[in-house]
Amino acid sequence: MHRFANPARFLRLSAVLLPWCAGATVILTILGLWFSLFSSPPDYQQGETVRIMYIHVPAAWMSLFVYTNMAIAAACGLVWKHPLADLFAKAAAPIGAGFTFVCLVTGSLWGAPMWGTWWVWDARLTSVLILFFLYLGYMALVNAFDDPQRGTKAGNVLLLVGIVNVPIIKFSVDWWNTLHQPASVVRMGGPSIDPSMLTPLLVMAGAFTAYFLSVVLLRVRTEIAQRKIQTLRLSVAGDGTVHDGMRG
Amino acid sequence: MNEFLHMGGYAAYVWPAYGIAAIVLLGLLVATWKGLRDAEATLKALESARPARRRTRNAGRKTAEQSAGTPAEASEG
Questions:
Q1: Domain extents for chain A?
Q2: Is B28–A98 a contact, with Cβ atoms under 8 angstroms apart?
Q3: For a Cys-Cys bond, which of A9, A61, A124, A152 suits A172, CB 3.0-4.6 Å?
Q4: Which among B10, B25, B50 has CB closest to A49?
């Protein structure tokens, strides 16, 4: 039973953290929507379409943040065989894929009126699309094996290989010619964006982070429950075989 | 209010962006919640069924040893 020692501690800790994360998600989302839809000015060039930024940019940050966390968890899972690290990566993947999907779709909706095109095959857009496929590939790979341990191991290797894509996404706007604008918040010399637009951006990023923490805690709980179910089912099946063997 | 919904003529781009984000994030939350509830219900059912199984099996084996009867008889007794 010592294998469940860590998860048991996690279950207690998550029960304490979850109400705080859920509360922060609700409050920050309401605040963030207020700032981004009412209490921020239209852009002098882009007009009201700039409001798409308050969804698009935080979603893009989350897509990289979640992937980086999954890759760190994958390294811990491979090196120390920490059971919770594998469960975390598996639980976080659909959330990261969701944020990447939101980033791609809102980017398209912003590009159509401002660039005059829904999609271009340039470095930034293509590398984010690859990130989306990395998420989907990981999710498919982890569930493709009968033995879940082999699945998570293969998935962890994919996550570690795929991490090269993260700096490529970040610096793609500097390394290649692209329609996409360069960084204006996380850059040397501080943000070049006006505070009236930086505030909604950061509040929405906070809301998305709190949302991620809440949902990932729930999903890790689910994964722990499913591992226990599997262990119980296997031991029941094992009993059955021994029993039949004794009879025969 | 109408002017707000109009979004300076870009309503067709701004509102779908917020709508997609809401659908994806809420859908994921609902799916997660449902998955957790189902898993905990299954786990509870398995855990409550298991000790009973073990008890009946041990009882059955004991009678089988004592009476040296067939397994069919043992499970009846």
A1: 23-179+195-228
A2: yes
A3: A124
A4: B10
